[in-house]
Specification:
The complex is a heterodimer of chains A (102) and B (183). With 102 residues, chain A is an all-alpha fold. Chain A has three helices and no strands. The chains are: A mainly alpha (102), B mainly alpha (183). At the A-B interface, α1, α2 and α3 of A face α1, α2, α3, α4 and α5 of B.
Chain lengths: 102, 183
């Protein structure tokens, strides 16, 4: 039986890859994909803790369900914003959308 | 024998999750990045199955792959002509972000393996019992967070429609909603 730290390490690797992509990607939609990776890592950690520490509790499932809802909401809002930005600027390159830069 | 099978499943699921995840953040063709997301999400669903969270295997495949990934693929294909696949897709922070993420990973792995986890050996209930318990919890004790999540999702969908509709009208026909996106 694989122990809890292995699952947590897989979750942190997934989170690290997602964080790397969020920081380095130039395309706004690719950044959204990386954020989805990080949300998946968080859900994986929730369920790993549930399985190994409190298998009788219901709350981790609630957290994962609400995390999924937030991920769906984030994808819908993010893509609406990205499509609007595309229509407004003609690009989704985050390096060129710098109107708020001081 | 079962322990062996569990280890093999864990290692192959790790490969199925991590390698596509690396491709998602590194490949230059963004449509390919979207498609690489698919095995990654399936791998995470496999981890859920290994963790005996049966309900969330189905939810992961239905919602993440069936809804969120399809939505992102639509957006990728709608804006595909903008970014040339031959162009570099990462900004100048690549090296430093890689170093910092790698160091963070090593530190967290070190701490995770050093910590003495007090695990319980009992198993969660079977798929039917888990789903029944979750469904009952969602309409009794945790009805409020469940409704809050529903309202959040509804608000997000309405907001997405409003944001996506509020485009600047074409220059030839400045209509009644001409100032919607002026700011």
């Amino acid at each position: 039986m694989i122990g809890l730290p292995y699952y947590l390490v897989v979750g942190s690797i997934l989170f690290g890859i997602g964080a790397f992509g969020t920081v380095t990607r130039r395309n706004a939609i690719a950044v959204l994909l990386s954020v989805e990776l990080m949300l998946n890592a968080a859900n994986l950690n929730f369920l790993a803790f549930w399985r190994f520490l409190t298998p009788a509790a219901m709350e981790p499932h609630l957290f994962v369900l609400i995390g999924l809802t937030v991920a769906a909401a984030e994808a819908a809002i993010g893509l609406a914003i990205v499509l609007n930005v595309y229509r407004e600027y003609g690009t989704v390159n985050l390096d060129q959308i710098a109107e708020l830069r001081g | 024998m079962t322990a062996h099978l569990g280890t093999i499943a864990f290692v192959s699921l790790t490969a199925l999750t991590i390698l596509p995840a690396i491709m998602v953040v590194s490949t230059r063709n963004l449509v390919h990045a979207g498609f690489w997301m698919l095995p990654c999400l399936i791998g995470v669903a496999g981890f859920y199955a290994l963790l005996e969270a049966h309900f969330f295997v189905v939810v992961q495949i239905l919602i993440y792959i069936g809804a969120i990934l399809v939505l992102i693929m639509f957006a990728l294909m709608l804006t595909r002509d903008v970014m040339d696949p031959k162009e570099r897709q990462t900004n100048a922070m690549g090296v430093w972000a890689g170093v910092i993420c790698g160091l963070g990973l090593l530190a967290s792995a070190h701490m995770l393996f050093r910590h003495p986890w007090v695990g319980v050996t009992s198993h969660p209930g079977d798929a039917h019992a888990q789903t029944v318990a979750l469904g009952k919890a969602l309409v009794t004790r945790y009805a409020l967070p469940f409704e809050a999540a529903s309202v959040l999702l509804l608000a997000a969908l309405i907001a997405a429609i409003v944001i996506a509709k509020s485009m600047r009208p074409p220059a030839a026909s400045v209509g009644c909603d001409g100032e919607v996106s002026g700011g």
